[in-house]
Amino acid sequence: MNSTELKVYLGERREVVEKALLTFLPEDESLGNIYKAMRYSLFAGGKRLRPILCMAGAEAVGGAPEKVLFCGCAMEMIHTYSLIHDDLPGLDDDDYRRGVLTNHKVFGEGMALLAGDGLLTQAMVLLTDPKAHQGQDPVRVLQASQIMMTAAGLMGMVGGQAADLEGEKQKPDLEKVQFIHTKKTGALLTAAILTGAVLGGGNEDQINTLREYGSRIGLAFQIADDLLDLMGDAEAMGKSTGADAAKGKMTYPAVMGLTQARQTGESLVEEAAQLARNLGAKAEPLEALALYIMERTH
Amino acid sequence: MNSTELKVYLGERREVVEKALLTFLPEDESLGNIYKAMRYSLFAGGKRLRPILCMAGAEAVGGAPEKVLFCGCAMEMIHTYSLIHDDLPGLDDDDYRRGVLTNHKVFGEGMALLAGDGLLTQAMVLLTDPKAHQGQDPVRVLQASQIMMTAAGLMGMVGGQAADLEGEKQKPDLEKVQFIHTKKTGALLTAAILTGAVLGGGNEDQINTLREYGSRIGLAFQIADDLLDLMGDAEAMGKSTGADAAKGKMTYPAVMGLTQARQTGESLVEEAAQLARNLGAKAEPLEALALYIMERTH
């Protein structure tokens, strides 16, 4: 799969995900402002990378991607909740996200806080909904829930965000940067792939390979984002650039320099692509996706 | 079971819950401030009513209470997360809770926000942990997760908190008060009983009876709390009193008067006690608990 084919694949999958999200969180005036706030951020754009990775994870182990859509959509809700809370005045205090006003700028701080809580809980409602996972082995559904919530929680995203918050007062170093990003963004990306693979019927070997793959693309994504932020590619980022550096945030280029950061990113995606190749033709999208991560920064 | 016996029962159960919580969230310096913040609020006292109700729900259908402890503790984490977020400046902006500083007053706003997120996700990590629910039917574990997260989310607690937030600007009326409290506090109390009953092996009839029981004690608890707040019993409430009335919050006495609120509370606990009696001797604690709710206000 070359990068043109990958773009078609990503576009098609993204449409499938959009439709599914609209089914799982349909418009409903009766549910008031809290529901409006939840939908505002969920439908404010985004690449839908986590649901796409979830489906690709299922595919890579021979499962049916459409059967794990509910899980991918739950992942997207968790991702969106994390963005809403991250943007709040108590954390990053951002006014814009993906070119539009952040949730609390539109709905107020209290409602935005609750909209985040609502999306996080709704993700679990969806994941444990017997109508959503018809015919799936309940043991595997529980296993997927465990993977997802562990990645979202203290040992994953929440832990990473906390370290990031505390890191603002500290001098950046490689160990801290790696800790923060492995947890803050890497854990959920990896979990997206793994839950798809678990629900898709993957065996232990396949799941271990995908875990290795996930940890590498998780870091590579962060390095690429850091590089794009530095390169000032406002269009690709959909937000004001140079922002992370200005805040003295922990970034890869800040601790290892631009050249070394780029080389590390390239090595990680090469390793990830090789891991995907080991899984055979079904994992071609994952291989192409890995290679594409650093392409964006060329 | 008279009220003296009930107090012994509640005391004993509370100790069991404290021990279990310490097992599920043990001290661990390596996990940093975020974990400290999560534990600060989880171990800041509290009656542990939800875990006790969860165990009593299992008992009432002939199940073993200690086998649902993990679920009761997950409930307590969800309850604690909701208190942390509720106290934040964006919502109630409270400095004290149960006589001690609120989470954000000790750890800062960002960390408190994340500590709430951490407890909510940790509840699901615990609920879906195969080590925690050894030997339980995975279908029933999923069912319990569904009940818990629905009660915690948009259709339950989050929805109720949002309505409460918006209600601050509106004139209180009975319909709104009922909507808010059924969702904000009632849903989670009922879910505590129901998850216990589901995991305890309850049948549909038993679960329906407990749902009716739960909805009644949920409202009665809120009425009793409103009355205690008005009566200014600072000791029983563990926080400054008259606070709700001062904020123009939706309370039962405010919309129906003191006498009518008290009568409604008494009717609800009588009905709840009768429903518990219908379940037989195993539900005696639930009967006694219902009757005790309004006793506190005498």
TrEMBL record, chains A, B:
| Gene Ontology cellular component terms for the protein in this record | cytoplasm
Look up and give the organism this protein is from: Dethiosulfatarculus sandiegensis
* NCBIfam families recorded: FPPsyn
Q: Where, by residue number, does the polypeptide cross the bilayer? A: none
PROSITE patterns named among the record's database cross-references: POLYPRENYL_SYNTHASE_1 (PS00723), POLYPRENYL_SYNTHASE_2 (PS00444)
* Taxonomic lineage from the root: Bacteria, Pseudomonadati, Thermodesulfobacteriota, Desulfarculia, Desulfarculales
Specify the protein name.
Answer: Farnesyl-diphosphate synthase
Q: Which domain of life is it from?
A: Bacteria
A GO BP term here is: terpenoid biosynthetic process
Question: What keywords tag this UniProt record?
Answer: Isoprene biosynthesis, Magnesium, Metal-binding, Transferase
A GO molecular-function term, please? prenyltransferase activity
